[in-house]
Amino acid sequence: MAESEAGRDVSKIVVPRVGSLIDTGEEREPYRLLDPAGLVVGPVSVFLRDLQAMGRSTATLRSYGMDLLRWLRFLWAVGIDWDRATREEARDFSCWIGLTVKQRLQTSRPKEARLASGVAAAPNPVSGKPGAGDGYAPASIAHSETVLRRFYDFHRDALSGPIVNPFPLDLSRRSGRANAHHNPMQSWRPERVGRYRPTVPRRFPRAIPEARFNEIFAALSCNRDRALVAFWVSTGARASELLGIRRCDLDPGGQLITVVRKGSRAVQQVPASADAFVWLRLYQQEKLGQGIASGRRQPVWWTIRRPYRPLTYHAAHRMFQRANATLGSDWTLHDLRHSAATRMARDPQLSLTDVQWVLGHAHLSTTQLYIAPTQDEVVQAVLAHHSRRGRLPETPPPPAPGYDPQSLAVLFGRS
């Protein structure tokens, strides 16, 4: 079939790593997207500035910028300007991103070791978590589709882009709004809105078992790491929330820390365990007299080696990866939040609304996920069921008082 009829062969499209998203370090413009010539891409800068005016965090700006960079690299590879892109380019991009290997793996892993498209890696033998594979996850592809649709909606409304969005809504949803006929007696559910939006499988939170957590904690190499993990698993705070606290946010007397919530940006005090404050004090005692700023508004967490810098998320992620390597597991920092939430939800002295407040969830339905049985509990229950079904009792139990055994034998045909 001719290319004009079947479209591009996306398997032969080579998208080079041209252009970049740079961190400016400026509060006015945290991120800036550059084209292959090193020039600022103006339409992206205007869009990111609009997101910043809406109160979006710098992490959101970086996430949106990376999705736009991936789309622009595809357009640069096929020779199409961003404002000339049609639904044909959007369709081909959606096919390409579902087939391609992540660019960071194309050079670091040999071609024969890569997995085929759509084939997930084997589950981890320790944690049981399914492997991510070499391609982009459905959640990443769905997020990219949402970002690109909003990008073109913004420029269409501003009369600075195409009047037809290359990433349209689904045909069944184009004439109506989401949840137009919602039953108030049922919970809200997300609806598929984009034509090129993939189906995202539902993921259940996975907590770290107590025995495995003790092994990981024993593999940590310094008091700073032990204090961090102890705070994460006792407060349920997100990784970025805990890494952003300052010295003035600590209240050892009340066993409280003050965090800024990731989504709502609300300032909230969260209770922590006494052990976490003990490890924190040991870490602070080690850093006395080493030239680290000690002001009340200074960060709590710093790098171990000189030159001392505030600890970033990527450095903390690598720290936890090294601890995982001792067990061969693949748990993440966010699994510590799941572990804390599971422990709290299983405590009969804590109500579900208490757990919701500690975790900072906007909806109670999100917290309800932690009261469901875990995969290990279900497996053990089903195996016990098969074990009970495999062996029948040798002698029937005696009848309850008041029943004649002979009458029961006549009714059920057994003695």
From TrEMBL:
Keyword check for Zinc-finger, yes or no. no
Q: Where is this region: Disordered?
A: 386-406
Query: Which keywords does this chain's UniProt record carry?
Result: DNA integration, DNA recombination, DNA-binding
Q: Does the keyword Ion transport apply?
A: no
Read off the SUPFAM superfamilies from this record. Answer: DNA breaking-rejoining enzymes
Q: Which residues form the Tyr recombinase domain?
A: 203-383
The entry lists its GO molecular-function terms as:
DNA binding
Write down the Gene3D superfamilies for this protein, in alphabetical order.
Answer: 1.10.150.130, Intergrase catalytic core (1.10.443.10)
A single Gene Ontology biological process assigned to it is: DNA integration
Give the protein name, as stated in the record. Site-specific integrase
Q: Which organism is it from?
A: Leekyejoonella antrihumi
